[in-house]
Amino acid sequence: MERKQIAVEATRIQIAALWTVVMYNIAFAHIIGFIHTGTLQQIMQGSLGLTVTPGLLLLFSVLPQVPIA
After folding, report:
1. pLDDT band at 69 (very low <50, low <70, confident <90, very high)
2. Contacts of 33 (CB under 8 A, 6+ apart)
3. Could you give the CA distance from residue 46 to residue 51 in angstroms, rounded to a whole number?
4. Minimal CA–CA distance to 28: which of 58, 65, 57, 55?
């Protein structure tokens, strides 16, 4: 019975951590969107000044997670 309780507690901790990451990302996206209006449109048009590659997108998605870790 004790092993099952430990497993449930570990699952609850993982869900809480994932929820924290999701909420952080939503807040980060909104803050950046408020500060730099029109950035999303520039990225979609390709007029940002740099070529957006899949590797660059990965880098930009991982970088905000560093303060959480």
Report:
1. low
2. 39, 40
3. 7
4. 65
Q: Residues 2-60: pLDDT tens digits?
A: 888 888 888 889 988 888 888 888 888 777 777 777 777 777 777 777 777 888 888 88
What pLDDT, on a 0 to 100 scale, did the predictor assign at position 17? 87
Backbone region of residue 37 per phi and psi (left: phi > 0; alpha: psi in -120 to 50; beta: other values): beta
CA dihedral 36, 38, 40, 45 (to 10 degrees): -140
The length of the chain in residues reads 69
Cα–Cα distance, 30 to 60 (Å, whole number): 15
What is the DSSP code (8-state) at residue 46?
A: T
DSSP state of 65: G
